[in-house]
Amino acid sequence: MKQHIILFDHIRRFTRLETTHEAILVEKLKYKTVDRKCQLLPQDQVCNAYYFVLEGCLRLYKNTEDGIEQILQFGIPGWWLSDFQSFETRRPSEYNIQAVQPTKVLILERADYAQLFEEVPELNHYFRLMMQKAYMASLKKVELLLCESAEKRYEQFVNAFPNFVQIIPQYMLASFLGFSPQFLSMLRAKRC
Amino acid sequence: MKQHIILFDHIRRFTRLETTHEAILVEKLKYKTVDRKCQLLPQDQVCNAYYFVLEGCLRLYKNTEDGIEQILQFGIPGWWLSDFQSFETRRPSEYNIQAVQPTKVLILERADYAQLFEEVPELNHYFRLMMQKAYMASLKKVELLLCESAEKRYEQFVNAFPNFVQIIPQYMLASFLGFSPQFLSMLRAKRC
Q1: Which one has a higher pLDDT value, B103 or B191?
Q2: pTM for the complete prediction?
Q3: Domain that holds residue B78
């Protein structure tokens, strides 16, 4: 199926997968189109799936005690999103996963997870590199939060993801970068 | 060797390794004791090794444009530390890795890396889980930086790593948590 080809192309950038293993993957992954605001993981529930974004965008966020939705991660095309810790430990998640816009995803559910990794052990290599990329990107974010001004953080983000900035609601981008929507408006006005 | 047993015990918490594979690991990993302030990775050089901390502590930090050493990650016993991105891409690292105190490490060098993962593919599973843990811990840190006061961040850290707080120089802990040493002194005085 066309949607799996996007994933296979992605996997091929990091490791080789035998054709028989691709077939197993097709069998195990579910394809789904979700509407904007569709809640894939509600906070305080155990996370039971990995999501691979084909089109659209997901966000992982936390409802804070102050009643704010703090966005910690976006899932854009080619990105796996999940609360991997909740998935691993089966403890309730502290996060929500929601579609920011109509989004197409491939879903790996818990019921298929163990068998899939047993039958296609090469996926450990692929996901090792995915987790490594995500970890290093997150470390970079910590660095930006600790070392750079809000203005510099915004600049770096716009340069790294120019198309993404056009698509995403501005208040979500502000949340992700750690400042208020008002401050973001000011920065954007300054750049025009 | 005793030092490898610590690693095998650690690996066993996450996956099974055959005895023959343990032997390959012993052969490939180098054991080293490093003095305080020993620089394992200097900024702007390609990172060519993974470090597994057996005893002591390493720090990964960045020399910022303001002349500050911004600590982004500590490597405590049972933790793998590296600039995994620089290792993967062979691009110069933006970070330094240095011993905070006399430290015992096992070192996986680039020269042995590819062959080790080929001969012991189960390590992909182990490192997938290691990267996943590191990623989720880093996401938690982003959350704390964005949502919590400096005081709350300190409290959470002390509760999570009470012994570590006793050992680590205070100015380093302040850097890691994103506030000044003066502010940390004030917090500590308040808690006594």
Answers
A1: B103
A2: 0.94
A3: 2-146
